[in-house]
Design a protein that fits this description.
This protein is mainly alpha-helical. The chain is 68% helix and 0% strand.
Length: 191
């Protein structure tokens, strides 16, 4: 299958926002592989014996997405950013439901600088990161969105800039500052 264009995905998202359920049927095959890549990325950061599988993560995120009312899609980056945020919420809720935070998370805790998109096999304490991101969002929503789009959605600097309607330099600066802020936050919470 040929790679779908950004414009094609945006058109289908906007048609879906307008109530066209057939647009969703046409959209899903176009975004399926990217959603699977996102889910695999998330799951690779979880502990090895995690019972949730990438397909289940996508399904749970889509259930939450389907219940969202009056969501107006801007473009492809907006869609994948929302999907990444929903997947993060599913994993956090899953971890909290099992009481992992209270029992030491049963995962190897790693400093954020050791976790990157280039090293997806390293587990991550998703609950601690979620709490840190919530704190960052209270201080600076845009920096939190940059982390979500870059780290969780896997968007490039350019795609993130487009999604947030800011310059590439702003994204680079926000990304650096947010990572440092999160490192300090996570280090303070693990001590």
């Amino acid at each position: 299958m040929a790679t779908p264009s950004t414009g094609q995905i945006t058109e289908l998202l906007q048609a879906w926002s307008g109530g066209d359920q057939h647009a969703l049927d046409r959209l899903l095959p176009l975004v399926d592989e990217e959603l699977r890549r996102l889910a695999r990325g998330y799951m690779s950061r979880e502990r090895r014996d995690h019972t949730l599988q990438p397909t289940a993560l996508i399904n749970e995120a889509f259930i939450r997405l389907a219940s969202a009312q009056n969501l107006r899609w801007q473009d492809r980056a907006h869609f994948f950013g929302i999907c990444a945020r929903l997947m993060r919420r599913v994993l956090v809720d899953y971890a909290r439901a099992r009481g992992f935070q209270k029992r030491g998370a049963e995962v190897e805790k790693l400093p954020l600088e050791q976790v990157s998109i280039a090293a997806p096999e390293l587990p991550l304490d998703i609950v601690a990161l979620d709490l840190a991101l919530d704190a960052l969002a209270r201080q600076d929503e845009r920096k939190c969105r940059v982390v979500e789009l870059r780290f969780f959605a896997g968007l490039s600097v350019e795609e993130t800039a487009e999604a947030l309607r800011v310059s590439v330099d702003t994204v680079k600066r926000d990304w650096r500052i947010a990572r440092l802020w999160l490192l300090r936050q996570l280090d303070a919470n693990s001590s």
